[in-house]
Amino acid sequence: MPSTTASSLSRQAPVLNSRQATIQALRLAQAAEHLAAAYSQALSRWLGDPVLRLAGRPFITECYRSAERQNELYAQGRSKPGPIVTYKRGGESNHNFGPPTPAMDVAFLLADGSVSWSGLLLSKFARLMQYADARVRWGGDWNGNGRSDDEQFLDRPHFEVPTAQKGGPGRE
Ligand SMILES: [Zn+2]
Predict the structure, then answer these.
(1) Which of 70, 75, 112, 158 is most exposed, with the fewest beta carbons within 10 Å of its own?
(2) In what ranges is there compositional bias, type Basic and acidic residues (predicted)?
(3) Which CATH number fits domain 16-64+99-160: 3.90.650.10, 1.20.1290.10, 3.90.25.10, 3.30.1380.10?
């Protein structure tokens, strides 16, 4: 089946353009040291995997978030249309600390240029994040019991590391 062979050979891993790469460097620079290190290691393992690298290119959609932006997100699904995406008001989320910021949100760039928040891809990436640093907490499994179906608020794109600052777990 020459055509199948040709199409599988021509299948390209999605790559960031130079503008996207610049934004990624800026977002990664906002992240707390342990989180940035875990992300960098997980990313390099992902890109080194012949199957995963074709499935999508992980990227940081958000790291530091101002209190104003947090309040805008909080309004979504309450005083503004859209689904609820957070239970934290401005200043309450780990995204509002720093920089250095102990939280980041991750998605995947696909080969066609679209963005995916696939739960399957995120769970695979979460495993690599936690393999890189066991302190990483994943919003798809806050209590770390290997299951997502017992979480009150699933936030699969979200990763965080503990901080010395006040607060605690589940600060999406
Ligand atoms: Zn988040």
Answers:
(1) 112
(2) 147-159
(3) 3.30.1380.10
